[in-house]
Amino acid sequence: MAERPSLGTWMLAIRPRTLPAALAPVIVGSALAQADDAFRLLPAAAALTGALLLQIAVNLANDYFDFKKGVDTADRLGPVRVTQSGLIAPATVRGAMGATLTAAGLVGFYLVVVGGWPIALIGMASIAGVLGYSGGPYPLASHGLGDLCVFVFFGPVAVVGTYYVQALDWSWPALVMSLPPGLLITAILVVNNLRDIDTDRAAGKRTLAVMIGPGATRREYALLVGLTYGVPLAACLAGNYPAWILLPLLSLPLAARAIKMIYTTSGKALNDGLGRTALLSLVFSLLLAIGLVAG
């Protein structure tokens, strides 16, 4: 009888360092709802739970599908993948992915009751995104579409969806303020793909980084971070928000250190860049949320 995977092994599969990517858009969407006197605790908590479950599901899906498609090999530079390394059997990882998606679906059912058919569409699209990112006949990540997919789902879809289940409406400010989380979480993916350019190319996985090369990928990262800070600055200069909206500028030192690391390291050393960018996305989003509520 095969030994049961330990909690520590499952933590490798879940990849906790990626979870700030799920928290950031929900924090911003809930702050927007609070600023409009529309905050509702239960829908906000459900949105947060659903986002975390979907993030865990996509981590498990990537672990499983990249192994099955031969993308993950012994030459992998990133954090340990439990399927490729033999720590957890492929069928077990697939089962955990299915169970996590089922749990996310149950949370989503409550949100559909609260928010109606728009939330049902978001939920179905999100599950399709989890499965289609690395799996299926046309994996988005293998055809240069991963960056766009991450931006859309972690930016507009997550922020506006979180706002909608509380306010039961959408707003232009919610759409505008969804840009920073989407941009920064896409930057996390860019670091991942920059690190894996050589192994992805060898495996036939054509990420955007593989297509444009390491130099342009580093410039993409800097552009994503720069545009992130441009959003609150432009909102303040346009007179739409008070100076509180500039609170995220306090995180600029974190951003500067992250950009420097991306330009001065490569290979396994970029694993630290993943953590730095995830931390930046969380800190920026928290500061943005405080600025939105205070303003």
Task: Give descriptors for this structure.
295 residues; mainly alpha; Farnesyl Diphosphate Synthase; 12 helices; 73% helix; globular
Can you walk me through this structure?
The protein has 295 residues and is mostly helical. Helices cover 73% and strands 0% of the residues. It has helices spanning 7-14, 20-35, 41-68, 90-115, 117-134, 146-167, 172-177, 179-195, 197-203, 208-237, 252-264, 270-294. It is globular.
Shape: globular
The separation of the N and C termini measures 60 Å
Category by helix and strand content: mainly alpha
Radius of gyration: 19 Å
The ordered string of helix (H) and strand (E) elements is HHHHHHHHHHHH
- Uncertain segments are none
Give the CATH level 1 class. Answer: Mainly Alpha
Number of domains: 1
Question: Got a strand count?
Answer: 0
The major beta sheet can be summarized as: none
Q: What fraction strand?
A: under 5%
The tally of helices reads 12
Using the 3D structure, state the CATH architecture. Orthogonal Bundle
- Kindly state the percentage of residues in helix: over 70%
CATH third-level topology: Farnesyl Diphosphate Synthase
Average pLDDT, all residues: 91
